[in-house]
Amino acid sequence: MAAVDLAGPLAAVALPAGARPCPGDVRDSAFWAGLSEQLRAEWPQLDLLVNAAGVGATAEVGGLPEAQWRRVLDTNLLGTALGCETFLPWLRATTERSHLVNMASIAAILAPPSMAAYSASKAGVVALSEAIAAECPRGRPGVTVVCPGFFHSGLLDTWHFGHPVQQREARRRMAVTGWTAERVADRVLAAVERNRRYVVVGAQARWLWRLKRLAPRTTTALIRRIYRRLG
Ligand SMILES: NC(=O)c1ccc[n+]([C@@H]2O[C@H](COP(=O)([O-])OP(=O)(O)OC[C@H]3O[C@@H](n4cnc5c(N)ncnc54)[C@H](OP(=O)(O)O)[C@@H]3O)[C@@H](O)[C@H]2O)c1
Q1: Whether 133 contacts 197, CB under 8 Å
Q2: Is-contact 161 64, C-beta < 8 A?
Q3: DSSP-assigned beta bridge partners for residue 143
Q4: What SS3 class is residue 70?
Q5: pLDDT one-digit tens code per residue, 189-209
Q6: Cβ atoms 206, 156 nearer than 8 A
Q7: Which pLDDT score is estimated for 231?
Q8: Which of 60, 75, 206, 218 is most buried, judging by how many CB atoms fall within 10 Å of its CB?
Q9: What is the Å distance from ligand 1's center to 218 Cα?
């Protein structure tokens, strides 16, 4: 297994036995090319690619700095696209089963207020995953796109908040969820086993996902009302 992350954080993490740390920035195509060359020289095949790097920013459109738009879109969407662009041919060439997992978010479907950049980046990840699935009709690789609601992680530590109320609410939601990164990972691995396309994690996320498909405008109105109550 090769674990990709920015150099500093990766050095601080205890990886499982046999996992190789591969420090790099997912926004950098030269990094992906170097990683591919290195792994292809050593590994006979690639079984699974998981694109999970992500960052976020909260502010209404009209109030989010350009630098944040670029940071979020470049990391979440371009970073995922470059990972797919680099490794998809190898995944497709694998003679046994192979699988691609892309981490999106329930925000991709719901597009809550103040989360336009994050939602747009993750909606792009959903579209990218669906396009790849359409390009690989015989399931080589299988494609799974994950749309979780809140789970415990370090995501909010690097999140840009335009207003303290948004930060308080995000931290409150993350604090009360029963989902951990390990539980999400177990759910994702089970979905890979069953070759499921969509994994929506969390009861509320699943409920809202269904509602959005049945009644998109009502869902947007409901979300707007919840957001207004936050002040
Ligand atoms: N936690 C949630 O509630 C939630 C909900 C829906 C979707 N997600 C998605 O789930 C995925 C995993 O996030 P997480 O919640 O586990 O948060 P996390 O612990 O912050 O993990 C995200 C990882 O991405 C890394 N990263 C950020 N920018 C990078 C870059 N340019 N190059 C390489 N690595 C980079 C981060 O490195 P650093 O250690 O430097 O930050 C971090 O290790 C993300 O795509 C996130 O959007 C999370």
Answers
A1: yes
A2: no
A3: 100
A4: helix
A5: 999 999 999 999 999 999 999
A6: no
A7: 58
A8: 75
A9: 30
Q: Which residue has the tokens 């409920």?
A: 207
Q: Is 202 in a helix, a strand, or coil?
A: coil
Percent of the chain with pLDDT over 70: 99
Q: What distances in angstroms separate CA 118 from CA 5, 88, 130, 132, 159, one per listed residue?
A: 19, 24, 19, 21, 10
118 has catalytic annotation: yes
Buried b (16+ CB within 10 A) or exposed e, 52-91: bbbbbbbbeeeebeeebbebbbbbbbbbbbbbbebbbebb
Binding-site residues, ligand 1, Cβ < 6 A: 5-6, 9, 25-27, 52-55, 75, 79, 103, 105, 148, 150-151, 153-155, 158, 174, 181
Mean pLDDT of 127-145: 94
pLDDT band at 5 (very low <50, low <70, confident <90, very high): confident
Determine the CATH number of domain 44-229: 3.40.50.720
Residue whose pair of structure tokens reads 């009709």 in the numeric block: 137
Give residue 95 CA to ligand 1 midpoint distance, Å: 31
- From CA 218, how far away is CA 231, in angstroms rounded? 21
**Per residue in 143-171, pLDDT tens?**
999 999 999 999 999 999 998 988 998 99
Nearest to 78 by CA among 11, 29, 39: 29
- Which atom of ligand 1 approaches the CA of 151 most closely? 3
Residue at token pair 């604090």: 175
